Amino acid sequence: MRFGDLTYLEIRRLAKSGCLAVLPTGCTEQQGPHLPVDFDTWFAERLCLAASRRASGKFNVESLVLPAIPFGPTPEHRNYGAGYVDIPGKLHGDLITATLTSLAEQGFERIVVWRGCGGHDLRGAVRDFNQAAPHKAQAFLPELPFHDIWCRFGDPNVPGGHADSFSTSISLHLRPASVRMNQIADPAHRPVDWQDPNLDFARYSPTGVIGDPTRASAPLGAKLWEASVASVAQTLRTISRTAAPAEGS
To answer: What is the domain-level CATH number for residue 168?
Structure first.
């Protein structure tokens, strides 16, 4: 399932067979005092790989998962002073477009962009790629299912947003050694204005946590993980059934 594990000849054959390409995008930014700064990148890639295996075994849908892009725009985390790599939004969009173009040139007709950071707006990059010609490819930017999954298996009354009980539960289930247990606390942050064009988490939370991670647990993480894998696998199945556009359309 890993793009990087294959030779170019193997990739060429898979692209011609109708295999999906999956591009996870992540970021490097603070995740509160209790989670490592690679959480979004690690989670995006691991989830895409697990969903790719599930879609292959359950739906006979083949996909190749590229290495997750580890950097993106993270200006809202700068004022914590460390742990971030912040690249301009235009550069991020150009990187996504260039990657999509490379995959289209190799013969992939359906390419899934999976956002590891919900704050990254990649609609313009995907739209511009889909409108470009000539190439016989289409990129897809699925909606993230995590809020709905949390409401089903967690507690909708527990606030979330960043380094919260969802992220912490996933980490406790899949890589518990990465969690600094003695640093988990409810920061009692101020309400966040998510529409603020100059969003700065440091104005709202002294720790970087938006939400309440104290309700996290490994058993809850197992449920959230299974539901997330099932959801993304179903998304891959749906996209695989979407007709590719005619070349130059």
So the answer is: 3.40.50.10310
Tens digits of residue pLDDT in 188-219: 888 888 888 899 999 999 999 999 999 999 99
Distance (Å, rounded) from C-alpha 125 to C-alpha 98? 9
Report the C-alpha gap between 41 and 28 in whole angstroms: 7
- Give the pair of three-digit tokens for residue 91: 């550069």
Reduce the DSSP state of residue 90 to 3 states and report it: helix
CA distance 26 to 117: 6
Global pTM value:
0.94
Short-list 66, 152, 71, 163, CA closest to 106: 66
Is 36 in contact with 178 (CB distance < 8 Å)? yes
Range of the domain at 147: 3-240
Phi/psi zone of residue 230: left (φ > 0), alpha (ψ -120 to 50 degrees), beta? alpha
